[in-house]
Specification:
Elements: H1 2-8, H2 12-37, H3 44-75, H4 84-100, H5 102-120
Length: 121
């Protein structure tokens, strides 16, 4: 019931796009952890790190939702046109930061979705 309400409150395209971004970032981090091991067997700390990354990757769409809602409230319907050379690196940095801190930010997004879906029923 809880998961159905939370995931049902989001558009499927939004979830797919967020999980694709999350999967790319997760793949980069897994590669980095394995590359740093330089052929050594995976130790408990590396497995724990990858587990935390995995949980963060699953929570990323809710973290992104918080960012998008804050942006919507602050900017309203305004549209800013920026050169792609500035916009794309900025979007990459924002998505990476949201992915890194998703364990801390996502509970706000989940609570927001829970309350929003409760009001609509």
């Amino acid at each position: 019931m809880f998961l159905k309400r939370i995931f049902g409150a989001l558009q499927p395209t939004y979830l797919i796009r967020a999980y694709v971004i999350s999967a790319v970032l997760m793949a980069m981090m897994v590669w980095f952890v394995i590359y740093m091991a330089k052929g050594e067997p995976l130790t408990f700390d590396r497995i724990a790190t990858l587990s935390v990354f995995g949980i963060g990757a699953l929570l990323f769409p809710f973290s992104k939702l918080v960012w998008d809602e804050i942006k919507r409230v602050m900017m309203g319907g305004n549209v800013f046109i920026l050169p792609v050379i500035i916009l794309m690196p900025l979007k990459l940095v924002v998505n990476y930061a949201l992915w890194c801190f998703s364990i801390f930010i996502a509970p706000l997004g989940i609570a927001y979705l829970w309350l929003r879906s409760r009001q609509s029923t």
